[in-house]
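Hi R.,

Here are the chain sequences for the assembly we discussed:
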Amino acid sequence: MSIQVQGVQQSFHGHTILEDLNLTLEPNKIYGLLGRNGAGKSTLLNIISNRIRPTHGTVTLDGESMHDNDHTLGKIYLMSEVNMYPERSRVKNLFKTTRLLYGGFNDAYAAKLVHAFGLDINARFGKLSTGYRSIFKLIIALCVPVDYVFLDEPVLGLDANHRELFYQELIETYSDQPRTFVISTHLIEEIANLIEHVFVLNDHHIIVNGEVPDILAKSYTISGPQTDVEAYTANLNIVGEDHLGGITAHYVYGALENDRPIPDTVKVDHLDLQKLFVILTNTKEEATAYVN
Amino acid sequence: MSTKLRVTTRYLLMNQLKALGEAFLAVIAIFIIIPFILAVVSGNLSDFSLPNTIANFSWGFLIGAFIFLYDSLTYDNFKLFIQNGLSRKTFWAAKIVTTAIIAVIGELFAAFYRYAISAPIWGISAHAALMKTPYSLYGNFFGSNVWINILVSLLFTIIFFIATGITGMAIGGGLALLSKWGQRIVIVVVPVVAIFLIGFVGNSSADKQVHYDFTWLANLLKFLIGYPQHEPAIAGSFSPAVPMITMLIGGAIMAAIAYGFNQLLKVKN
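And here is the predicted structure of the full complex:
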């Protein structure tokens, strides 16, 4: 049981957004979908949830098409920045509508979350602040009976306390009732410890697709005097570099050569997910600007 | 009917009935309460007749306009349904079913009001009440049996409401594909072009210097409204069969167009 995205291509007005994209979303896993502004993350999530049709390619769930299919669409929920709910409807009525249309809703958990986040269920959706709209949508996302939950910028407008609360609730609900979450966000540091698998979308393609520990295990910062660092990293996959004073840092993505001796002057550390993301998605101009 | 179609229809029906109730209350407020207040304020209370005002309500027009306008509202419901895991196909089918149910409920209410409330207040027979409606063209087609004529008029109006609603769906579906700017252009340009075209056809027919022949159009329109072929063309003797079949065919074509537009719906940023 998995969602398969196969050969997806998306163009708007002649501009390519996604090109020949292939990925698989397995059950009961937390994914991170990372990419810079305009990379196509929201477009990809909109295609998966059938909100837009791809120019080419297919999306299937257990081999069944996601296109115009109540059976498969009823197994996913996409919480997005776009407001899809009627502005005049009250929050409590939207919970009822969700229960009616999805055929279920965890009322007890929703009540707990409403209390914890301080959401006014008598308020009209259109009157909620940006933060509380996100909270409302998050509560629905965590309470609908689906197998796949897609969260596009889930903490938009949330203060630090509410963000912390959301991450805690996400871990708790995932432990109690495992299902797949796909989180698309720019706050990489905040989700780095949550996600098991990461996709990095850049330049219309998935450039990183793997388990987070495996990816971080082969991401290195090699720092030290320039000549020593350059000698050690020769022929390795250097994806970026920094210079500060007399110290040079080379960022390497890929296996190191274990038989190559490490000079005493050179230090080898692992990169964190955010730094790796920044390095991998920097444009050439930006990368050059960093080298000083 | 699948579970998803049932719940979607239920949602649309409940919302539509609520909106229809609000529209009824608004009409009552506008056509009873405001004239009453004006009569009181201007000191002409004796000219105000509550029974006559009540009897003159023609709910059929309100229901027809309501069905058309409500069915043309597409994008907001599409957003809500796609957010809740429902397909475009189900949305389209639920709108068709809801339109049919509202058409039946609305026409039964309008007919009850016309024959049980308005006709007694006016002091006229059921047949005379029937002949005060747009259906009067066909009101005697089934002879002197007034109840058969009334029954067919109900069926005629229900089909008309359904076809009107589905036309609203097709127009609303098309508009939902456009940007707000595009929608404004269409809403302004299409009526202007239509009025120009009607004026052009009218003038061309009257102008003997111009040799456009619109006889075929006139004959087609006569045929479509059920113009009598042999009998004298007097109100009441027109045949409702051709317009009913035309509305059914037209409704089916509009439903297909609405389905096509529905399939192209997408979430806008």
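The longest strand of chain A covers residues 15-25. Chain A has eleven helices and 14 strands.

Let me know if anything looks off.

Best,
T.
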